[in-house]
Amino acid sequence: MLKLYGFPVSNYTNMVELALLEKGLPFEYVLTFPEATPDFLARSPRGKVPFIETPRGFLNEASVMLDYLEDEGRGKSLLPAGVVAVSVTADFLLGAR
Fold this sequence. Notes:
Elements lengths: L1 E5 L4 H13 L3 E5 L6 H6 L7 E4 L2 E4 L1 H10 L11 H14 L1
Parallel strand pairs: 1-2
Antiparallel strand pairs: 1-3, 3-4
């Protein structure tokens, strides 16, 4: 089972949590605040939240986590079907930043 580490007032944590909920994927929410300890930095080298624990290790950066969740192919797809539609969506999202 995936573990999402973060805290509720982090917009990036909320983005990843919402994707997990929308996809219907089981996960454990682990309330975590950034700290500059060796243990924390081993899981999140940039010293930030959110990060997720996968069966293969830890991922950080919300955009990478969202790509991972979609590319895993489990749960409901959050992107439209087809390479052109996905590209148009990505273009829109990048422009909205």
